[in-house]
Protein 1
Amino acid sequence: MRASIVKMSRRVWDEGILEKEWELAEVVTIPKKGDPEQVDNYRGISLLPVGLKMICTIAARCLNEYMEQNDILDERQAGFRRGEEEEDVRVFHRLLEGV
């Protein structure tokens, strides 16, 4: 299975070709708190094919690693960085609001 994933990943990277089935996502609604009769109390999510999610995960890891190694991201960028605590970001924003 691992060999298939590697082969699939290389095809996407080298040729820029995605499987036809990956071009579609199923969008479903998830209820939030509140009155279910109100449209605003729902949020949409996209259900993606597993193969596409795997390719996107691999790509995201490669890009993040490259940006970290080459010091491309600003130190204030923490939203999707490993090792950056969400609470630290919240405290930082609270401090900025108080200034």
Protein 2
Amino acid sequence: AGELRCLAIFSKQRLNEFPDYPTAMEQGVDFALGQWRGLAAPKGTDPEKIKIIHDAFKATMEDPDFQKLAKKAGILLEYKGTEEFAKWVVEQDKFYKDLIISNKLGDKYK
């Protein structure tokens, strides 16, 4: 006990459970990492079906009971609409691909 000290949280914002621990971004490190979840559908899926699923997903994220459960589990909720999420996934893919290549990670890049 007392032998470890947290230096940074790698999320975009401080965690409710650890309000005194700064984020890496607050300390000048432009990096955030976390788990994310999203829904995807095959190309050509009927837009009306996508809208139904999207609206249900969004309503769940806005539900106060769901938000309480997420907070209790330490999950930071961040809603992105369909177009914003699609753009974000492409950006994340590029970020990690560039990170892997520039640091020669994995046998393919050594």
